[in-house]
Amino acid sequence: MSWQAYVDDHLMCEIDGQHLTSAAIVGHDGSVWSESENFPQYKPEEIGAIMNDFSEPGSLAPTGLYLGGTKYMVIQGEPGAVIRGKRGPGGITVKKTNLALIIGIYNEPMTPGQCNMIVERLGDYLLDQGF
């Protein structure tokens, strides 16, 4: 299966009638493996800051998580595994695998829990596959 199929079929799938706004699979080095059509253009330093928070949990909390210039307030996650952020009526979930970051962005009426489930389910599957 191509990486684009993982984004199209798994991350951008419908859940309870809702869809993520955008999603991507990004290598730890910031290289795009695959992304949805409207995924924000991000800066390498934004991915660097996210990767740093996985090795030093809590480092993003004071400044917020930035992706594509958009700031998200960091909320509860799983240190070293999942970062979750909130911004107005939407938010972001980032799941770290051995080789990649699985990123999902949502807006209401999708709930944070629905976004978490989509992103983390694919991340767990890819971890099981060695990715």
List keywords for this structure.
3 helices; Beta-Lactamase; 33% strand; 7 strands; 131 residues; globular; alpha+beta; seven-stranded antiparallel β-sheet; 29% helix
Care to describe what's here?
InterPro entries: PFN, PFN_euk, PFN_sf, Profilin_CS. It is found in: Cytoplasm, Cytoskeleton. Binds to actin and affects the structure of the cytoskeleton. At high concentrations, profilin prevents the polymerization of actin, whereas it enhances it at low concentrations. GO terms for molecular function: actin monomer binding. This is Profilin. With 131 residues, this protein is of the alpha+beta class. The chain has a single domain (3-129), classed as Dynein light chain 2a, cytoplasmic (Beta-Lactamase), CATH 3.30.450. It has 3 helices and 7 strands. The chain has helices spanning 3-11, 44-55, 112-128; strands spanning 22-27, 32-35, 65-67, 70-78, 82-87, 90-96, 100-107. Strands 2-1-7-6-5-4-3 form a 7-stranded antiparallel β-sheet, sandwiched between helices. The two termini are 13 Å apart. The mean pLDDT is 96.
